[in-house]
Amino acid sequence: MSSDFHATDDPFATFAAWMEEAKASEPNDPNAMALATVDADGLPDVRMVLLNGLDHRGLVFFTNAESAKGVELAGQPKAAVVFHWKSLRRQIRARGPVEPTSAEEADAYFATRPRVSRLGAWASRQSRPLGSRAELEQAVAARDAEFGETEPPRPPYWKGYRIVPTSFEFWQDMPFRLHDRAVFDRAPDGSWTRTRLYP
Known about the structure:
This is Pyridoxine/pyridoxamine 5'-phosphate oxidase. InterPro entries: Pyridox_Oxase, Pyridox_Oxase_CS, Pyridox_Oxase_N, Pyridoxamine_oxidase_dimer_C, Split_barrel_FMN-bd. Catalyzes the oxidation of either pyridoxine 5'-phosphate (PNP) or pyridoxamine 5'-phosphate (PMP) into pyridoxal 5'-phosphate (PLP). It is an enzyme of class 1 (oxidoreductase). The protein has 199 residues and is α+β, with helices and mostly antiparallel strands. It is 29% helix and 34% strand. The chain is built from 5 helices and 10 strands; from the N terminus they run H-E-E-E-E-H-E-E-H-H-H-E-E-E-E. Strands 1, 2, 3, 4, 5, 6, 7, 8, 9 and 10 form a 10-stranded antiparallel β-sheet that branches. A hairpin with a 7-residue loop joins strand 8 and strand 9. The radius of gyration is 19 Å and the shape is elongated.
């Protein structure tokens, strides 16, 4: 795979190559991305989430469907993301419609999470008011006692989402702010067109 985004017509190949380089250089969470959605009034909302899957179908993340982002995606299933790797002085932007992953995909990923994280998914009423840290810890302990020796299954409201990109933009820092940029746009037949952009 090439890191040169001007040398390919497949943005996923460059994305995967850059991600591998980020894994080798970023000190923490190279798969962190800023996820933007909009609320019922059209006001943008953004937060950091982790990319948990990448293939030619799109970019996958998982979350509580009852969270603010889950509610916003239910109302307007479109999103934009940006990755910024300071160690590499690079960023990638992508946007497109959002579709649910299969329940099997969500189950498979949920099973890889540490037990406490799985208990937390049951205990947390994500994005809703919390009286104290102790209240959260007590809720986790209660769920731990409830499940006992059994493995916590995936909660029905904990789901996977796939962003199906209609565009990617790659950005590489260059001297004197003469940065290198290119945008890839998906055509109706699924092919991609690449356009170099002024910085």
